[in-house]
Amino acid sequence: MNASKLCSYFGVKGDIVSLKQIGNGHINGTYRLIVDDNGRETVYVVQRINHYVFSDPVRLMENVGRVTEHIRNRYISAGVSPERLVLEFMSSSDGSCCFIDNGEYFRCYRFIDGSVTYELPDTPKLLESIGGAFGNFHRLLSDFDSSTLYETIPDFHNTAKRLDALFEALEKDPYGRAAEIKSECAAYREEAELATSICRASLPIRVTHNDAKCNNVLFDEKSGEALAVIDLDTVMPGPVAHDFGDAVRSACNNREEDDPDYAAVALDVDKFKAFAKGYIAKAGDFLEKEERESLAVGVFVLAAELSARFMTDYINGDRYFAKNYGNHNMVRALSQLALAKDIKSKLPEMERIIRGL
Ligand code: ADP
Ligand code: GN1
Ligand code: MG
Question: Which of 117, 212, 313, 326 is the most exposed place for a label (fewest CB within 10 A)?
Answer without folding.
Answer: 326
